[in-house]
Amino acid sequence: MNKKLLLSSIIVFSGISFVAHADSSVSKAPTPPPTIQNNFGAWKASCTYAPATRAASLCIAAQQLTMQQDGKSVALGMVIVARAASTKEPITTRPYELSLMVPLGFDLTKLPTLTMDNGKPLNLPYLVCNASGCLATTQTTPSTMAGLKTAKTGHIRVTRVPSQGGGTVTINYSMNHFSDALGALETWATQKAPS
């Protein structure tokens, strides 16, 4: 998969924005690529289309994980399932990537794990960290995708750094409507960009 495209898309999708200082002599910013998006419960699904071919180039289903603390919503991370077209292959033939965005302050030498219901934990290697958190990602297998589609709950486990007391933190979340979001991505990936 085109890691740069996927990573930059995940960063944009997860709400991390970069402000570009444009020269006032530039007449107009480029038109953003066509995108279809919809919410399925807590899951947000979107597909972006390449302007030249009108074919799907990136499709993402993601759930922002939060908790309430002192009456405020606090971000805990994000679960992301995405796939991108390559220069040689259309999106429909590409595998999905499963990614977790976890908060800072966890031990990067211990991989985060994702467990569906009471299944076997899946290790996700860290890819990059920025001021908003750390992204861990892995390519999915057909059995991983089948588990995601049928799961009721997901459990992310991360390990605190020793200076913060060590130990494991578990972030539980609902998988309700994930299969609906994934179904939309599958449909949108086979369609041309909306007019």
From TrEMBL:
<feature type="signal peptide">
    <location>
        <begin position="1"/>
        <end position="22"/>
    </location>
</feature>
<protein>
    <recommendedName>
        <fullName>Invasion associated locus B family protein</fullName>
    </recommendedName>
</protein>
<dbReference type="Pfam" id="PF06776">
    <property type="entry name" value="IalB"/>
</dbReference>
<dbReference type="InterPro" id="IPR038696">
    <property type="entry name" value="IalB_sf"/>
</dbReference>
<keyword id="KW-0732">Signal</keyword>
<dbReference type="InterPro" id="IPR010642">
    <property type="entry name" value="Invasion_prot_B"/>
</dbReference>
